[in-house]
Amino acid sequence: MTTHSDRPLGLQLRGYRLATAEITYHLPDHPNLLQTYVWQDYDLVPRLPRLRKFLGFWRRSLDGPLHSVRVCSTRLLRPAEISLVSSRLALH
Prior knowledge:
The protein has helices at about 10-15, 50-60, and strands at about 15-25, 35-45, 65-75. It has a 3-stranded antiparallel beta sheet. Helices cover about 20% and strands about 30% of the residues. By secondary structure, it is an alpha+beta fold.
């Protein structure tokens, strides 16, 4: 079940950033060839617990051994972009 705090806005308000990882791995049948996979999720930078969990799953469950992982992140929502509304007006 997804809660409001698990949605992108709720995650960003709790300090999560959009993180993107370019994962380069060896093909299982042709170990001299490399392939890339792009992973993207909201994560806590710089610890990256969600990415670390995914990479742990990869090592345990997938056949293609990891070669390298390149990570970048950005804060999509900044505190200055949020303002509280003191009143609300509904027009009929």
